Amino acid sequence: MRLFFFTYFYPTINLIPYQTLLTIKVLSTLEEMRAELEIVKHLYPEFTLEKYESYLKEMIPHNYKQLVIYEKDNCVALTGFWTGFKLWSGKYIEIDNFIVDPAHRAKGLGKMMTDFIDARAREEGCTMIVLDAYTNNFTAQRFYFNQGYIPKGFHFLKMIDENGLS
User: Fold this and answer.
1) CATH number at residue 72
2) CB–CB of 85/127 below 8 Å?
3) Which of 1, 12, 129, 141 is spaced 20 to 30 A from 88 at the CA atom?
4) Average of per-residue pLDDT values in the chain
5) Taking the model in full, what pTM does it have?
6) In total, how many domains does the chain have?
7) What DSSP assignment string belongs to 90-154?
8) Are 1 and 108 in contact (CB under 8 A)?
């Protein structure tokens, strides 16, 4: 679904696609990422700046970046991503924490982010893009299926300390 906003120039009406009013950017520094805590709170409402910053300090040295979409100066979508290597796959990108502001859902922002990550993975010579989606998150599963992602296996975990989860 494409959304349009109207601009009026007498005597005609021009349609401007919503996506042309947006800016997409890759963040790679602590300072840049720290500024986007508010959108992260849509997924992790209890996050404090201190906790968010301490996690980022651990993640950034391991090639963690964030892809953000701004409407003017307001961040309306964010996903983290990592580039890594595994013996079975070679180089890959992993999507981590896919967030779209609830007021901006169903406007194509999620597709913009997956398309951007797809293009970046191809440019960097990756063999695949991977991500996790909770088994009970059917909305996310449907979205990822529609973007060409398929389930390839199970992501097993053994809980050591539930109190440490976000």
Assistant:
1) 3.40.630.30
2) no
3) 141
4) 88
5) 0.83
6) 1
7) EEEEEEEEEEE-GGGTTSSHHHHHHHHHHHHHHHTT-SEEE----TT-HHHHHHHHHTT----S-
8) yes
